[in-house]
Amino acid sequence: MPPFTRPASERGHPSEHARLLRCVLGIRERSARAVPWEPDTVGIPADRSSSALSRINDVAFYATAREEVSALAGVCVDLLHLHAPDEGDEHGEHRCEGCRQSWPCPTFAELCRLLA
Ligand SMILES: [Zn+2]
User: Are 61 and 44 in contact (CB under 8 A)?
Assistant: First the structure.
């Protein structure tokens, strides 16, 4: 099961925000610690296409993947810090601290959907 996959019924619970934040922090940390890819470090994966352009695309992807994954995880971390549930009112209803909409706000719901 992928790390983000959870039943839809759990996606709005405030604890889901903490879990998703832990996941993207872990991705960002692992990508930051990973050895940058170079042909001499881990080699070039087997060619799956006879197209030179496709091969160039693959190499360009591997060469930038570490930095791009780290940057995308950083964007997710920032969005999750902005869109977090508040402490809740006396009825246990939460609002987003960033956009003040009812929790889960549309931004958090979309992050859950995209990362599932
Ligand atoms: Zn929000």
Answer: no
